[in-house]
């Protein structure tokens, strides 16, 4: 717990004290800044991101391509590309800053205390090993057990993720399974060592909608059993509404709004959140021409000063274009980074 | 002037598809269990009325993309007929087919893969006109500028290459290319699936606007029911190479008849936490089209399956291919009606839309 002292002035610490009754913080990301080096120079793709993932709860990171949601996940897992560098910030996993760990310390936690499932289960499974081999490998790596026990545990995990005839499936290769089944195998592998933190990066984006419903339901049931903290990364506000407890909306490397899921949908504050919500065609209603968000996300090399959304925001003024708005609490547990919030008072 | 236009008069069918089949043989040498056929499209019939938007919806492997390619004869059919303005295109030679190709065009899903990276936007947009011998050099240049304007790009983009554009802009180029030869029928194969939501909304609005302005007929192939609801007049639902339901959009969403349509609708997560419910979740995967189930192809996953479904194939009748749809329709279905949105969201949404219009006006004014 030595690293807690590093962030005494951090807003999140105050929050934790005020909401002491809440579930345990499994992972705390504090003021994380990640840059990428390119031919044109170095650019921040994450710029001061902070959030907490709690035991038994699902935090959704939602945003469009390039907003930094996957980079956040990869930073936590220590899987960033060599061209990326973490400028500042802390990633506390059960109180330990994993950015300060050596490779051995990180490897002890990866696949054990924290695990990740990816968007494309075909490319994240090894095609030349059986799924049984791949699940037992992770168990043997982290547990003091023999091959027979690891095998038993792997079969048990396949049964938990509801793969029919799990004993027989152990000898299958990934290509013999459907996309949905492969994602179940990924989940079995990720949860085999009872991680405290599960990161799911667009886990259902590559799947058909009926299979997506199965997988989301599965993650939720398993989470109920184990109390794992889940960080779910998605571009789909429907998925957020369906499975999330808490949500952080990301735009261009910053969190622009953070709230309980019900509050975000009932009381959306940030103009970007409003734009996103309004621009989705609805299955349950046809509301006429879709409101859009003007233009597209600026390239990392062309990030504007001040609020990064100011180039596209219909409410932006000079203040927004020069000074960055802080992520400030607007209601209990609801934060927004916008000078104009609440809009009806400051922008009507 | 007296209104003599009879609005009930049947409009002409631009496209008539009858008993369409496409079977792909699999190689014996390379694929275990090869030497059999994949029945990607297996007896599909429908018509497209001039000026409407027909959506074909279904999950991976249902045959919807193959269907799109068959309509344009990008692949040859195994059986059945595809009539464009009454003319059976399957019987035409490649030479006879060519003039028709200017009249029916396609927009592809992936704006990164469907534009030649070595051609400038000007070349991409004028190529269809050259192929179809439309206009001279100057006229083609004028038409190209007009096309760029139509899709919300500007003439200064003409000399750039695809990699210089964002995904949304590339899709606009793909749309402009499809329009270059002046088609009547445009088929969009997942035209907005690869795009982020805010850009997706822009492209959906663009397609609807172009359809209205140019009097196009659209066939939209999609896996996204919400997009389909937003864009289409009628919807066909496909499962494993068969059309299982075909109905006007409002009707389909108000009272889905086929158990598969009901399950699809139930599976879509709505962007509204208060709609979280005990959804009906289909068990299992879509069976392999190499070895589709007997009888009704959906029977292995259908929650209402009975003995008859396993043996007897239901035909598309009253817009639905299910033996028991009358009983099933009477059962409570997926509750997908919109819950009222909160006052706060409604207020800010109105404010956002008002400012958004001003923003566009300001941009238009320069």
TrEMBL record, chain A:
Q: Which GO terms describe its molecular function?
A: ATP binding; ATP hydrolysis activity
Q: Name one GO cellular component term.
A: plasma membrane
Against InterPro entries, the record matches this protein to: AAA+_ATPase (IPR003593), ABC_Ni/Peptide_Import (IPR050388), ABC_transporter-like_ATP-bd (IPR003439), ABC_transporter-like_CS (IPR017871), Oligopep_ABC_C (IPR013563), P-loop_NTPase (IPR027417)
The keyword S-adenosyl-L-methionine belongs to this UniProt entry's keyword annotation: no
What membrane topology is given? Peripheral membrane protein
Q: Does the keyword Nucleotide-binding apply?
A: yes
Start and end residues of each ABC transporter domain: 29-277
List the protein's name: ABC transporter ATP-binding protein
Organism from which the protein derives: Skermanella aerolata
Source organism lineage? Answer: Bacteria, Pseudomonadati, Pseudomonadota, Alphaproteobacteria, Rhodospirillales
UniProtKB/TrEMBL annotation, chain B:
Q: How does it sit in the membrane?
A: Peripheral membrane protein
Q: Which UniProt keywords apply?
A: ATP-binding, Nucleotide-binding, Transport
Q: Name one GO cellular component term.
A: plasma membrane
Source domain of life is: Bacteria
Q: Which compartment or compartments is the protein found in?
A: Cell inner membrane
Question: The ABC transporter domain covers which part of the protein?
Answer: 15-265
Give one GO molecular function term. ATP hydrolysis activity
Q: Name one GO biological process term.
A: peptide transport
Instruction: Note the Gene3D superfamilies from the entry.
Output: P-loop containing nucleotide triphosphate hydrolases (3.40.50.300)
Please give the Pfam families that the UniProt record associates with this protein: ABC_tran, oligo_HPY
InterPro entries per record: AAA+_ATPase, ABC_transp_ATP-bind, ABC_transporter-like_ATP-bd, ABC_transporter-like_CS, Oligopep_ABC_C, P-loop_NTPase
Task: Determine if Nucleotide-binding is one of this entry's keywords.
Answer: yes
Protein family (similarity comment): Belongs to the ABC transporter superfamily.
PANTHER family the UniProt entry points to: D,D-DIPEPTIDE TRANSPORT ATP-BINDING PROTEIN DDPF-RELATED, TRANSPORT ATP-BINDING PROTEIN
Protein name in UniProt: ABC transporter ATP-binding protein
Source species, please?
Answer: Skermanella aerolata
